[in-house]
Amino acid sequence: MTPTEPSARPIHLEDLVALPLTFGLTVSHGGDQVAFYGNATGRFELYALDLRTRERRPLSDGQVARSPNAGFVWGWGDRALYFSRDRDGDERQALFELEVGPGTVRALDHAPQSMDYVNDTHPDGRGLLVSSTRGGQMNVYAYDLSREGEAAWTALTAFEQGAHEPRYSPDGTRVLLSANESADLKNLDGYVVDADGGGLRRVLRVQEGSRDSLGHWHPDGARVAVTSDVGGQGRAGVLNVDTGDLRWLTPPGAAFGEEALEFSPDGRWLAVLRNVDSTLTPVLYGIEDGAEDGGARELRLPPGVSHGAQFALGGSHLLLGRSTSAARADVLLYDLRTDTAEVLLPAEYGAIDPGVFVEAEYVHYPTTDGLHVPALLYRPRNTPSGAQLPALVHVHGGPTWQFFRNFDEITQFLVSRGYVVLCPNVRGSTGSGVAWRDANLRDWGGRDLQDVAAGAEYLRTLPEVDPARLGVFGGSYGGYLSYLAPVKYPELFRVSVPIVGISDLHALHADNSRDMPQLAQYFRSMMGDPVQDAELWRDRSALTHAARLKAHMFMMHGANDPRCPVGQARGFRDALVALGRREGEDFEYAEFDDQGHGASDVEGRTRSYRLLADYLERRL
Asked: Where in the numbering of this chain does the Peptidase S9 prolyl oligopeptidase catalytic domain appear (predicted)?
């Protein structure tokens, strides 16, 4: 649906959150079906859509997680799906098999404290590739579907720093993956291992310290898709793992980054995702030397952000989601033969006039060191002349992530209530090259926080913004900076709302080392060693500076969060109480017993959005 002219009708929270969500689109091996998570009934279930008949049918009936946070794969023959499910957001993912025909669900073997994520199925249909923490660090395991208990599991890797994104070769004899054995914790290399765990060898290292990963096998079983950041931007290419021949597809010195996705079934094309100015667009590269249709093939898509891209229907089509900052995501089926796109699953708007949603402005504002921060700026519609509106800096998670020009539900809701919202891609964000992404290494709460403060100063320059009514909020890493901003810049913000945030770096590392070792490794790659860098960690922990807090703060956290454990919020709350601050008057606190690191279900989002909006109305 195309947004209409501006409407005076407000966005009601219940109407917005009730709009159906669709995510996790996964094309079947046969290419004629797509499965996805959807909540059209009010609860998330797995669905399948026949791409030829357009028949849509539910596959699950209450067996998937209330708030799914793990993917799934099709079994070979497309007769089953394999998915992971946790309990109330605790991320102790357990594996399940869902038979597509009868809809029966079978639990597979699971160690209670393990996190098991299914990555691929063996071509013979008898086994799975699983990323699991059952041995401590996240590593790769083969799971034999014909066996039970511990006998079903075979460890294929034992990397101290973990392994990522394994995938079987077309004949099932080899597995590609990405891992790091270098002392440089930022480094990532590509490996191939035999399907029984033998013959492990490194096949890709463009340069030590760069992030070089393997992504998808070519149908010939020798070539794989690669992505490397060695040139300063993400760059896609094709590697022959037998000969070592590497061919780059992304032009050298390109002003954009690209990530390799997958090969077409006939091996003729490699689909990549191009990142330009907070947009993502699929591009196809012809990969055969001397082919007349070689080089980049850009698709005729409307402006916006693509959510992945997968070949379907024998490779004649691409399946993708596409949205803009003012329009919810449609699921498109793009015909590569005619360069036309069909809306397969149109976005729904229910009782909401889509004309109320606002387009984001792509801006750059000045920060320290003579640099400028790319950001998305949302302004309320029809603001009266001379009005002075409250404004918010919304900080994203990650930090190796970014805000895109796609539909942002919470931002649209806040803008409809009269807030100007700035979404900056501060230093540490992706999308602006390696130097920008790595600019906060061993500097969390340093230059990235300066960019947040500069964002607040930028908002003050806007004529419709009340310079005395500024707030900051964000989740996860955004919650970390939302704890730190008001204690490092105590005069700048009136309110701060850290959501599932971080206030104590040493406590975070200790908890992650015990419960999520893959995140502890990631954290060390970002901020160094807990002993050698102890003073830095203390300085960049908001808990150290709690006495400097002048802004009013509202902390929200899920009690089952394993990524940023609830002790991060409880510890800061207790520090404020010890300083004589009174809960309910000087600060506010909400903890959710049925939630982990955020929630995607209707009930959880409604509760969080309402609490946030009510708090801002009272305090900002």
From this structure: 406-618
